[in-house]
Amino acid sequence: MNLEDIQRELIRQELDGWLFFDHHLRDPLAYRVLGFTAPRTPTRRWYYFIPAAGEPSKLVHRIEAGMLDAVPGVKHHYSSWSEQTEGLQTLLNGTRRVAMQYSPLCAIPYVAMVDAGTVELVRSLGAEVISSADLIQQFEARWTPDALATHMEAGKRVDRVRRDAFALAAERVKNGSPVDEYEIQQFILTSFREQDLYTDHGPIVAVNQNASNPHYEPTREAHSPIRGGDLLLIDLWAKLDRPGSVYYDITWTGVLGDPSDEMLRVFDVVRGARDRAVETVQRGVSAGGTLAGYQVDDAARSYIQDHGFGEYFTHRTGHSIGEDVHGGGANMDNLETHDERRVLPWTCFSIEPGIYLPEFGIRSEVNVFVEEGSARVTGEIQTALLRL
Fold first, then answer.
1. d(CA 317, CA 296)
2. How many structural domains compose the chain?
3. pLDDT score at 289
């Protein structure tokens, strides 16, 4: 935690302070922003308040008095519910506008970590609760040079696994040997372990109609065979299996044989939408103006709509990427939410438009990293439908 930077940003955003709260490890963002690990699962509520100026203060239960010892500030204790309320009032004394991990109408659920009752409690003490979404992006979603290095290394390894997975499916089909989605998925997971990569779930390996489900995952009990002529979509994400690493997340599509004209047409539209979104980011960042997530989504979505497939693009254009595959920064979204958060330097996100027809689905996903004044795709870019 860099207290000076946080307080400088609170002043810039005209906030009186930032109130952190946790109970039973409900808010992982709090620990990452504050830069400490809970000594054990907190079974009593704790509060930590960073004012725009001055020394932070903390409120902890007496039987878990050491819960916030890793962070600086004046410590206050409570035992009873009434003493807790009085202690929180002391922390917030004179505060008018306070940031919390709250999102109005739950528009950005990745930030909505604080329960409604706690928000009501803070409001009852006279403070207006403001979403910390922009603060979270500033202090949790922005990468360090070391984080970027882990992403780039993970990308090399994931791209290698992706190539091997498509090659295995193609070899099996060519030789007439049985192969299915689940076997390719397990091959990818085994390869990840061999490459010292970690993933929280997945990957997606989907043929034909299954590829029309953006979150399809084969299981041992439910999967489809992979045969000649099938369209095959693989969406895989992983990070280096070490602390502080960030994810690399991509989707590629191929055909076991000759693609149909419709497959080629859909891929061309998806690729065009992806490239339009990437160009929108690059132009906006280089121009030095304010670029918001919803504007990137608009660029990709309008391209697909103009080509007659708008109703088949059923999810946002992209998501923030960090230590979680879906990070706490701006999403490229004007469908599921109207994400007005700025695209900030030293953040990364996916660009992954897709068209999901009843017969098959095609998605093309790349990762875009934003630097000071420029933006770039961090890995390999699919330019044509793979012919396997």
1. 8
2. 2
3. 84
Q: Which residue, 140, 164, 184, sits at the end of a domain?
A: 140
pTM of the model: 0.91
E strand or H helix at 362, and its extent? strand 361-363
Number of CB atoms found within 10 A of residue 302's CB = 13
pLDDT tens digits for range 80-113: 999 999 999 999 998 999 999 999 999 888 899 9
> Read out DSSP for 275-320?
HHHHHHHHHHHHHTS--BHHHHHHHHHHHHHHTT-GGG--S-SB-E
Tell me: do 258 and 309 sit in the same domain: yes
Helix then strand count (H, E) for the chain reads 9, 17
DSSP collapsed to 3 states, 84-140: HHHHHHHHCCCCCEEEECCCHHHCCCCCCCCCHHHHHHHHHCCCEEEECHHHHHHHH
The string of pLDDT tens digits covering residues 274-291 is: 999 999 999 999 999 899
Give mean pLDDT, residues 373-381. 97
One-letter amino acid identity for 215? H
The number of residues making up the chain comes to 388
Distance of CA 320 to the CA centre of its chain: 4
Domain span at residue 18? 3-140
* Closest alpha carbon to 260 in 295, 212, 217, 208: 208
